[in-house]
Amino acid sequence: MSQLPPPLPPRTLVISPNWIGDAVMAQPLLALLRAAHPERPIDVLAPPQVAPVWRQMAEVDQVLETPFRHGPLQLRERWRYARELRRRGYAAAYVLPNTLKYALIPWLAGIPQRVGYKGESRYGLINVMHHDDVPPRPMVPFYAALARAPQTPLQPVPRPALQASAEQIAAACARTGLDPQRPLVAFAPGAEFGSAKRWPASHFAGLAQAIVAAHPQVQIALLGSPKDKDVCAEVVAGAGSAAAALYNLAGATSLAEAVALIARAGAVVSNDSGLLHIASALNRPVVAIYGPTDPGHAPPFSDVAASISLRLECAPCKQRECPLGHQDCMQKIAPQQVWQTLQPMLTPID
What is any one of the record's Gene Ontology cellular component terms (predicted)? Predict the structure, then answer.
């Protein structure tokens, strides 16, 4: 008589935030969950634009891409999808977005333990309810706290970590035309949140000139989404004779390829954006430029990292556009100031 196969181990579901940087900063939560339940595979339900980041995390077993449109509740579609999730045998779900509609999915799927923050009054849908501190904690411990019972004092948290293989890096260099033998610096001049977070393109151009003058063999990759293509073109146009060393790759790479190129870079200069947090989680040397946002809320964690902020009286305003119309918090950070911070990081790249 044949024996029945052993039952599959229960799984853990993590429902991703909608922002790339937030997804990166949630990785320590997965590390804590894996340590607590090494027998449980971890799946992540993520929007398609964020899914590639989760695939670079060692703790993730499978990434499920959300089939829902942005905005509408789509209750019928969520109910149908929840039925599919029910068959995967989840023991617990960690709901990272604070919205009601994302909390519906594990409830409809009958997942017994549903962990998250109060958010949009999600009583019943979330049955292990956490409450954020006032003032809010930085993002990494904010997410990591979900690994333990509510009100538990948080122990030291591991820093975010991503991985990129040598094969992935080589393929990305080959497809974008970057020379794998020449030193590489990456710029991230965009910011999905709004223009207030962008260091001026002319300043990035001035920084590029200083880098190329000091390191003539360098390549500078300008990375970002298709929305950042124009601002990256402005950087190239303003770089003068240094423009030959610049590669405008905004919108020309997949997110996975951008991760690989950042992993290859000798240093990264970025606004407060998702690519900054990717660089930090890859442990690249980073110069992070902050204006309307708080550098203490989502700082880089690389071994070699510097945050530049003028800390003006009007900052951090956390607005998409400068409410005063001058954007002094970014305009007054001079290229020379950033170059002085970056220069020691570049000593080994030649």
Answer: cytosol
Parallel/antiparallel/unpaired status of strands 113-117 and 286-289: unpaired
- The answer to whether 208 and 220 are in contact (CB under 8 A) is yes
List the structure tokens of 327: 């954007």
CA dihedral 238, 244, 245, 247 (to 10 degrees): 80
Joined together, the tokens standing for residue 64 give 């499920």
**Domains 11-147 and 166-346 alike in fold:** yes
Q: Where are the domains of the chain?
A: 11-147, 166-346
Distance CA 298, CA 93 (A): 24
Q: Please give the CATH number for the structural domain made up of 11-147.
A: 3.40.50.2000
Closest CA to 242 of 200, 271, 214: 214
DSSP per-residue string spanning 237-257: HHTGGGGGGEEE-TTTS-HHH
Residue 4 has pLDDT above 70, yes or no: no
pLDDT at 119: 80
Q: Is 158 helix (H, G, I), strand (E, B) or coil?
A: coil
Q: What is the pLDDT of residues 316-338, one digit of tens each?
A: 766 667 666 667 888 899 999 99
C-beta of residue 257 within 8 angstroms of C-beta of residue 52? no
pTM of this prediction exceeds 0.85: yes
Instruction: State the amino acid at position 268 in one-letter form.
Output: V
CATH for the 166-346 domain, from 2.40.160.210, 3.60.140.10, 3.40.50.2000, 1.10.730.10: 3.40.50.2000
pLDDT at 1 over 50: no
Per residue in 196-212, pLDDT (tens digit) is 788 999 999 999 999 99
Instruction: Specify whether the backbone of 177 is left (phi greater than 0), alpha (psi in -120 to 50) or beta.
Output: left
The H or E element that residue 25 is part of is: helix 20-25
DSSP string covering 163-215, please? ---HHHHHHHHHHHT--TTS-EEEEE---TT-GGGPPPHHHHHHHHHHHHHH-
Query: Coil, strand or helix: which one is 35?
Result: helix
